[in-house]
Design goal:
Length: about 240
């Protein structure tokens, strides 16, 4: 957990021209691990351009090893494409594709079986936060991935309050730090041996302006960036903020 982790989640955005422009404009900083997760179809080209400056991630993979699952990409294929990291359980997957903790766990197992690093996304809804249930919700999501957290060689958690994703409304640093502390407590409880090696990232409207404030707290070991990762200058500024 010595390096800070900065992950770009393009979601269903970007094209080849943007990919080429981005690949040539990112800083290479030894204390930051930068990962770019484009739509899966672009991963191979991105891996060709990485040159050790960044790693390639996928936004999702299937929950099966292989077989008759039309439209799915397997974890082994992700590795074949040159990816080293896979997001799993992103709230958009959970809500748009009805992925529950069981499916997230099955995907996570596939990711670690392929030798890749899962980044498990968790986070509460606005209703859960306003009713004081945020910590319980996130605790349950983290606990459901105990097996994966214990068995992965490398794994990270991304805390992304759903109400802060793509809304421009980031959690306050206090809210983020409190949740990161709670997640750290859960990890120490459920996977004591693995806990010190697990980074906890914050995601939800991270941008070049709020990144330095987030990185001022040791509880925040990285960020998962959606919208701002589609702006090369802004994303480069976030990587530089992580290096400080
Ligand atoms: P956002 O997305 O930075 O656009 O809020 C973050 C995410 O969903 O990973």
């Amino acid at each position: 957990m010595t390096q800070r982790l900065v992950i770009a989640n393009w979601k269903m955005n970007g094209d080849l021209a943007f990919l080429e422009a981005l690949a040539s404009s990112l800083p290479s900083l030894s204390n930051v691990q930068t990962v770019i997760a484009p739509p899966a179809v672009y991963a191979l080209r991105l891996a060709e351009l990485a040159q050790g400056v960044f790693e390639v991630g996928l936004q999702d993979v299937g929950s099966h090893e292989s077989g008759a699952h039309t439209g799915e990409v397997s974890a082994a294929m992700a590795r074949d494409l040159g990816a080293s990291v896979v997001l799993v359980g992103h709230s958009e997957r959970r809500s748009e594709h009805a992925e529950d903790d069981k499916i997230v766990a099955a995907k996570c197992e596939q990711i670690i079986a392929a030798g890749l690093m899962p980044v498990i996304c968790v986070g509460e809804t606005l209703v859960e936060r306003e009713s004081g249930k945020a910590i319980d919700r996130v605790r349950a999501q983290v606990t459901a991935q105990k097996h994966c957290l214990r068995n992965a060689k490398e794994v990270a958690i991304a805390y992304e309050p759903i109400w802060a994703i793509g809304t421009g409304k980031s959690a306050t640093v206090t809210e983020a730090v409190q949740m990161h502390q709670a997640i750290r407590g859960v990890l120490k409880e459920i996977v004591p041996a693995a806990a010190p090696g697990i980074s906890i990232l914050y995601g939800g409207s991270v941008n070049a302006e709020n990144a330095p404030e987030l990185f001022a707290y040791p509880e925040i070991q990285g960020v998962l960036v959606g919208g701002a990762s589609l702006d090369t200058q802004q994303f480069a500024a976030i990587i530089r903020a992580a290096a400080k």
